[in-house]
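[audit] Reproducing an earlier prediction to check determinism. Same input, same settings, fresh worker. If the tokens differ from the archived copy the diff job will pick it up downstream; this log only records the rerun itself.
[audit] input (300 residues):
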Amino acid sequence: MSNNEIDLKNSSSSSYREKLLEHLFVGEIMRYAWLANIKGIEILKPEVDDSGYDLVLEANNILRHIQLKATSLGSKVARFNVHLGLTNKPGGCVIVLLVDRNTLKIEHFLWFGGQPGQKLPDISGNAVGKHAKGNSHGTKTERPMIRVIPRGKFTEVEGVGAIIEKLFGIKCQSPAGLTSSPLIEQTPPVRSGAHRRTSVRNYADKREANIVAYYLSKYGHLNLKLGNQGEAIRKISKQLQVNPNYTRNARDLFDPYTGSHRKGWVGKALSPQYAVIHKKFKDYSEPELRQVVIGFIKAA
């Protein structure tokens, strides 16, 4: 896995972590495909890691050479290094795993690639990558086979089923008993007498958290009277059973659309689940939207 962008903890064990995430990704692809009655996905690994890809997957007579990367959910990484050799491979593509840094749970994906059967879009004209460390003179020399791809060129993809469709053109409904989001995080056991919410929280059903994130982007945290910004996000996230990084990440996605003083994810189009929230609440006044948000928090 080419994961110079990852910023998860335990950097001293980066090679182990790379393999762990790769196995989790492959396992989820195979599990989802099996339960969706898609048989025969073949998985190959290169002997030498110098051709720009980490995995080769084949299904539905489609061959995919995949460069696999990872970064933590909410990371501000704005660009990814892609090997030019990937452009010469059938169906070359790049998949970025967006990972919860505390649990290593894959929340969702970023995708860069063509349609099934097509090569990677031409990247030869992009900026040439450089070594992370300087040479003996302190100069960061160029890496001729590496091109820098802005994050905005990647497409956000939700769930393993959507990744399978991107890879192989196979449309598959979520199998019974399996949500479309990978590595679903189970909520902790609820003590007797405590308020019980759903036992599974996946990326698709975090609408309440997304609406709260929209409020935070548009109006900030002060009127919620939950402490400073960090405290407010932690309390809200705990109530709604999401990771605080998820709340921050969703807020940042909305920033370019709400007039926020933060820069946010400039140039990134809103995916449908976020766009519908923006359309519905863009004309709400602060008191009106605050009442919606408080209702969610009190009900949690």
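[audit] rerun output stored. Observation attached for the diff report: The radius of gyration is 21 Å.
[audit] end
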